[in-house]
Amino acid sequence: MNWLNSEAFTAFGQHIIWSDMIGNVFGLVALALGWRRSVWTWPVQFLAGLILFGAFFGHLTGSAGKQVVVMLVALYGWWQWQRGKGQGADGHIAVRFATWRERAAMTVAAAAGTVAVALLFTAYPSLSWDPWPDAYIFVGTVVAMYAQARGMVEFWFAWLLVDLVGVPLNFANGYAFSGFVYVIYGALVLWGLRDWWLRSRTAAPLEGAMT
Question: Where are the transmembrane segments (predicted)?
Answer without folding.
Answer: 12-34, 46-79, 104-124, 136-162, 174-193
